[in-house]
Amino acid sequence: MRLIKPDIEFKRELGQLSGSQLNQCMQCGNCSAVCSLAPDDRPFPRKEMIWSGWGMKDRLVGNVDIWLCHQCGDCSSYCPRDVKPADVIAAVRQKTYEHYMRPRFLSKIVSKPSLLPLALAIPVAVIIAILSMAGTFKIPAGPVDYSAFFPHAWLNSTFTTITVLFYALASWGIGSFWKDMKRNTPSPQGEKGRVPVFKVLGEILSHANFSGCGSQKVRKYAHMLVFFGFALLILVTLYAIWASITHNYPLPLSHPFKIAGNVASLMIYCGLGIMIFHRLVNKSVFGKSGYTDWLLLIAIAVLTLSGSLVQMARFGNWDLAYHLYFFHLVVVWFVIMYLPFTKLGHVFYRTTALFYARSIGRK
Amino acid sequence: MSEVKGNRILAVCSGCSIGKALDVEQLVQTIGGENEGLYCMQHPALCSEAGVQQLQGVIEENTAGSVAVAACSPRVKVEQFRFDGSYIERVNLREQVAWVMDDGDEDTQTCAEDQVRMALAKLGSIKDVKPYIPENLSSEILVVGGGISGLHAAIEGAEAGYRVHLLEKGNRLGGYAGRIHRLLPDPGKKMELRDPDIKLLSDRVEAHDGIDVYLESTVAGIEGEPGNFKVRLENVEKTNLTVGSVVLSTGWKPYKADNLSYLGYGQKGVLTLEEFEKHVEIDRVPDRVMFILCAGSRDKDHLPYCSSYCCTAALKQALYVREKNPNAQVYLVYRDIRTTGFQEGFYKMVQEDDAIFLTKGSIASVVSKDDVLQVIVKDSLLDDEVLIESEMVVLASGMVPNSSDELNLNYRLGKGIPQIEYDFSDSHFICFPYETRRTGIYASGTVRAPMDMESSAEDGAGAMMKAIQCVESVKRGEAVHPRSGDMTWPELYMERCTDCKRCTEECPFGAYDETEKGTPLPNPARCRRCGICVGSCPERVIGFSDYSINSVSAMIKSVSMPDEFDEKPRVLVFVCENDAYPALDAAGLHRLAYSPYVRIIPVRCLGSVNKVWISDALSHGYDGILQIGCKPGDDYQCHFIHGSELTEQRGENMQETLETMMLETERIQTSFVEITDHHKITEIINEYMEVLEDIGPNPFKSM
Q: Is B352 close to A15, i.e. CB distance below 8 A?
């Protein structure tokens, strides 16, 4: 039997993040009834709502069910008390990143708009430091050649190292998250479940669970576009790193990987366009779009856009090419390094939670 | 009592498809032929202006004392067929003949003829009405109890111009409302707790010229009847009063907390709502306070009912905690939050405080450990079983009504008011709020039902209106309810009374006391005119001017009886006029057909059916008798409390009588319906006809 000690600060933070009057939830369970993804056994988000109302942080941050949700907003649309379960789940996710991610101050600075300048200042400072060390912190003369500004060896070694460092810290958080899920939602049979890796990957790639969401059908395609666009871009980037080491870089515009990269950008533009449009138009379904929602969308948009511009600047020999390149690197840092601390952290947490859920037969 | 003077008239309407179902001309000829000197008229629309005018003319020309109006149900067109100075008997040819039986059928025609015959037989045996008005009439009203309900009753009565005597056992007015710390928000006004305002009201009451306040006073005795209650007060002055009616507002007491040890009561830090109300005034509030709702309520081992106020009171006290100690957390464990009416808005207001935590759950145990109360909550919304720690636990327990024995009624049937389930002094809680089972005494506030202060205040006003209605009705010699305006009353032929006291025992309203010699002593103003005493009397000495052993017997015997070889059975149906009769009318409206062999006699209550009517009917040749009344039982629909129950009890005796007469017990059947049961009532009749078909005709038919 567990001792309940309401954490009122946690409750207040959830309330602020979600814009929900948590106490007004009357536990009717309508949210769980309309949810197409809630398991039959102890469905969500009814219980998550009262745990939020009681500030039960330990139950919520290490909770597998929070990640089974696809944020379709059906629960919020049908809530008779307007306590927006979908937004509460989003808020719990945000608190989960903050809880598990180290260094903790990074989660703080990406969660508040007032700290955005600081969040941007860090990559700016780091990149200037690297460039100074490389001795190339000045605009090169001649046709645009980014490696003259940021030598490939420096770029690849520093960015890769930092990324690996960040993700090592993230995986440490993911480890505690896995342990907490096990404690909060033990396997019903008590046995050690096998993790069905390919089944879960198939589930993620096919976007099958999106189809059940009644409120916004088009989300599935928007997410697919961004998801596969992003995946393709990562692939292209990896190829680019490899190419810059082994043979001539940059690639010509006609190179298959260059084409793939541009197609990927196009997919992301389309997907993001739909997402942003829906957030602006369907306010009743999404509820309040918060800072973290917009931060993710805008960061990816700016990342892709600045990438495209950098490419154009190279082929067009623009005067501002190096400024744009610098800016693009800052945004790359912003998205890649801060990724586990922002809403994009769902890439890790959701995947982990899905592995756990399916391993204990929860669906 | 004298016979009704003047001639009898029969007026038949052929409108509303009566003329289509019946040969009205033939009906008038047949009945006219049987009754020499009976003036008969017919009209295609008797209730029309022309029809009423024609009837008025006929009444005047023939100096008619009584009129049988054979048209629609007596429940409709009441105003049209009211003629001062003439007794009107309505024959229900529309709802109960034309609309439910085959058009133009011989049996339909016979049924209509018999229903008219019965009405004429009744008119031949009724007496003139002479209203009963008690001597020394008083219009003053006694209010017992100076709580919020009593205060509102007193002020409303005095403002309406009646002298009110307000009695309070304690040394101050205000009752429970005078002991509470803060009030709920005013509906529609600013959502915040308010300071108590009962003092404003009690000051107004004390200053009012029309109200006499008696503090530290109780009732030593009440005798008499509405309009003339003699009241002796137990106080320093030994005051004696004569009042016309009484409002009982003696309120409630909290459920005995000692019985709540299973919720930790008795341990340090465990309080009741009442105790916490005092605690916040004088003492500090700890950092964690838990409220346990439904403490000993809706629990068959304690109070089986919902007291309706405790949820709101606990929510209010949760705000006290937060006001007194801004760092405090409040936990509320409920079964169901029941905040009624405007209180729902208050509930939402409480929910805005995020330091108040609510969950459904039931309490497994409350154990004190190192000055901390450890509460195990089962089946909660949080989890199957959880432990919550708190420095203080407040038990929201329910209301127990105060006893009405404080009235000290000098009645043969006891000094209090007979109570409904759970000891509340109420009567018919759906149709007749405030009515108790003692005429002229009206209950208001928590003594009659659990309720909050707002409802108690309203209740006081409501009960006072009934008390005023009673005073005024008694002045005119009328019944208050449910037969409002009825001027008849039970008259006893004492010479033949054997002092068996059955009437005194069976009267649901305690109208009968007894003399020192043990003879029944009626108090007619206490009577509700149900006629249960008529049904109870084995000597058949009790009757109303228009509802007596003779009048109903005459109706029974007036029906033409075909002989047993005609295979046309006759069933006498006694129909309670309160719920069963309207249900039968509704069956007519829905054109739900039933047998034309029934002959319907409306009765004031099934309990008023005297055994002699049954034997009269059997010896007259009826094949069966069907009694249809309201539902008996604790959640009764019976307008006269236990008339239907009495019929069931008497039915057992009746079965024995049938057996000694060598008759099948199925020849008498009693059924109960609700007012909405129009489908069921026709089924009851038709199924009974099938039963009768099986057992064959009454062997007494041709005797």
A: no
